[in-house]
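Moderator note: this is an archived Q&A kept for reference. The question asked for a predicted structure of one protein chain; the sequence and the answer are reproduced below.
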Amino acid sequence: MVAAYLKTALAGSVLVLLTACSSVAPKYTLVPENVNRLRDSGMESAKLGDFAAAPKAGDDVNRLTIRGGSYDSPYDGSYVNYLKEALRMELDEARLLNPNATVELSGFLIRNEVNAAGLATADAQVEARFVVKRGGQVRFDKVLTAKHEWDSHFFGNIAIPRAQQNYPVVVQKLLSALWIDPEFIAAVKK
């Protein structure tokens, strides 16, 4: 009886240790399909404007946790910067980033969540408001949302790395939704 209790207590302690660690998200990776869509879109070159946390979201969008451990952005600890860097990378790779462009893309990060508590599935959701201005006039203003699900696990040493690896995918999906949005394309076409 005592041996079973000690075994259970030890397993619980290990589980706590495995779930309360701090980690840093992987840097954003380009999505070739997104870059190709941008190149083929007929989009005029653009510059990036200001990006911020939505007023109602506050700094919550910049703080993520995975099973009790902090999950920090590799871009100055800011997921707003994560989103902006992802946009910058894809526009730059498509050769559409120009600091002197008349088209400006800015936005607000509204929601940013990772839920890895599930034993079978986990998910991440990102919601952002994108604004396109041309010559100072708003041409596009829309909120887009992306969700990504993956297989999770009971044990933190499996579930946590899966969550860490899958978070960037939801940002990739969000950008993909933006690049194919017909209203966005109409606002940025030459």
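Archived answer notes: The first helix runs from residue 2 to 19.
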